[in-house]
What we know:
Layout (H helix, E strand, L loop, with lengths): L1 E3 L7 H12 L4 E3 L6 E3 L5 H11 L9 E3 L3 H5 L7 H10 L4 E6 L14 E5 L4 H10 L3 E5 L13 H8 L5 E4 L9 E4 L6 E4 L10
Parallel strand pairs: 1-8, 2-8, 4-6, 5-9
Antiparallel strand pairs: 2-3, 3-7, 4-7, 5-6, 9-10
Helix pairs in contact: 1-5
Amino acid sequence: MLLKMYPENPNPRHVQMVVDCLNDGGIIIYPTDTVYGMGCNIFKTKSVERIAQIKNVKLDKANFSFICSDLKHISDYTKPFGNSIYKLMKKTLPGPFTYILNANNNVPKLFQSKKKTVGIRIPDNNIILEIVRQLGNPILTTSIYDDDDIIEYTTDPELIYEKYQDIVDIVIDGGYGDNDPSTVVDCTGNEFVVLRQGKGILDEHL
């Protein structure tokens, strides 16, 4: 199903349809403030395994991240972190960053790499944030890649739908996406380390 939604004012009925789909183990594709993402309810094991298959990666090497709705939500799934990390996240989120933090026991074992860390996103996109709020727990997130080596990410939701309509349950059309991914920052050591430079510029916030 291709579902048109508007970031300024997501239709509550449509939001509920997506939440029901996620609770039933469905997989969705949705807009963020960077590239379009694919995701599912983090507590639906079979759905997580399906996404790993779609992406052709082994789960223990997948590096999937979570989308949370706010900073309090993040602390439900991570070990306590220092004031400097909290301040940085408060300045930059919602925004185009993925922060790698130490995971706590609320993170399903499926996601716990040997390092016991988890990537956290709060995108600046009202559609996906409202869905996560209504769902009540994070969703897994992974970027939608294009097969074209020149254009790394697909930005047109109708083309995404053409490609994935038989693979996922709902594609949300929230308008054109970006083709710059989030900036990934490792916060598990003594210093912030940028693992992937994307749309977010960390230096502007330090």
